[in-house]
Amino acid sequence: MGGGGARRSTRERGSGHAPRILVLDGLRLLAALSVVLFHYLAGSGTIPWQRTAVELFPTLHRVAEFGWLGVVFFFMISGFVICMSGWGKSLQQFWQGRILRLFPLYWVAVVLSSAAARLGPQTPGEPRVTVGQMFTNLTMLHEPLGVASIDNVYWTLWIELRFYLVFSLVVLLGTTHRRIANFCWLWALGSVLAPASGIALLDQLLVPRWAPFFIAGIAFYLVRRAGRVEGETLGILALSWLLMQHHLRAIMEGEGHGINWKVCLTAITAMYLLMGLIALGKLDWIQWRWLPVAGAISYPLYLVHQSLGVRVIWRWNEQWGAWPTLLGVIGGVVLIAWLLHRLVERPLTRLLRRMMQPTTPASA
Question: What's the pTM value of the predicted model, to 2 decimals?
Answer without folding.
Answer: 0.91
